[in-house]
Backbone:
């Protein structure tokens, strides 16, 4: 296995550049730190371009067999240089470099059980990652983000998703384009709003459904939309007096209410 020791090595330079959004978008690559995330990538439709391991790591077992099976290049990195490649204070000893999925202008198909999320202008990577993780757990396959939302392939998002980013489809689309597609397809669009007229469990969520979540600071008001026949608001009760819920918590509540109404028991 090749040992990399120079910061000027092209593999090293490219890997370090992926810590910035500009580098990720230029190379169409992103980082997956730790065996768990790399393994989720290997089991998915994503392509792992190469894996870097800290000098001295024992390379054996089923994880390494999977790398060999998929013919993923593996490089050792000197102990002195390895910390520069990672984004965490306590770096894990395995770092994967993963290719972006192929770009598409298509929208996903709509069937009677369709359920997806629109995340508009979210700024906190932890929130986005947590929502992706919850959606993955609940079996939701489609998440839209709008321009201006934090990068879904940033390191903090990928780590917070715990592998969810590899197990659903992420679409970046303008909000008006998403809404036009949804309306044409007969999808109900619901927004979480503390001032909503209907409590979330009073809504019928059994048909094709999209939940729209706005920016952490401004919520529904930040979308610039007005409630109408196709965009309707849902209220999550806050009897304790708090002004709002964290957006990832609100998303989880609505996602799992949808499963409850549809009789999904995990079996």
Residues:
């Amino acid at each position: 296995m090749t040992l990399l020791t120079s910061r000027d090595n092209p593999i090293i330079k490219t890997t370090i550049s992926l810590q910035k959004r500009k580098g990720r978008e230029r190379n169409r690559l992103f980082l997956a730190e730790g065996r768990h995330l790399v393994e989720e990538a290997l089991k998915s439709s994503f392509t792992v371009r190469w894996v870097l391991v800290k000098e001295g790591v024992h390379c054996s077992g089923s994880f390494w067999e999977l790398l060999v099976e998929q013919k993923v290049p593996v490089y050792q990195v000197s102990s002195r240089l390895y910390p520069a490649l990672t984004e965490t204070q306590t770096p894990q000893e395995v770092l994967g470099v993963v290719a972006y999925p192929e770009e598409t202008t298509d929208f996903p198909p709509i069937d009677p059980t369709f359920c997806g999320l629109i995340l508009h202008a979210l700024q906190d990577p932890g929130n986005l990652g947590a929502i992706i993780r919850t959606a993955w757990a609940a079996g939701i396959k489609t998440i839209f983000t709008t321009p201006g939302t934090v990068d879904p392939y940033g390191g903090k998002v990928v780590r917070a998703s715990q592998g969810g980013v590899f197990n659903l489809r992420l679409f970046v689309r303008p909000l008006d384009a998403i809404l036009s597609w949804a309306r044409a397809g007969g999808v109900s669009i619901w927004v979480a709003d503390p001032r909503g007229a209907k409590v979330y469990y009073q809504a019928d969520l059994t048909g094709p459904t999209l939940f729209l979540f706005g920016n952490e600071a401004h919520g529904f008001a930040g979308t610039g939309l007005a409630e109408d026949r196709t965009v309707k608001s849902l209220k999550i009760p806050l009897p304790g007096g708090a002004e709002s819920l964290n957006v990832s918590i609100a998303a989880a509540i609505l996602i799992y209410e949808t499963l409850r109404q549809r009789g999904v028991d995990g079996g």
User: Anything to note?
Assistant: Residues 3-99 form a domain with the 60s Ribosomal Protein L30; Chain: A; fold (CATH 3.30.1330.30). The chain has two domains: 3-99, 115-261. The first strand starts at residue 3 and ends at 4. The helical segments are 10-17, 21-27, 35-43, 62-69, 125-138, 155-161, 175-184, 247-261.
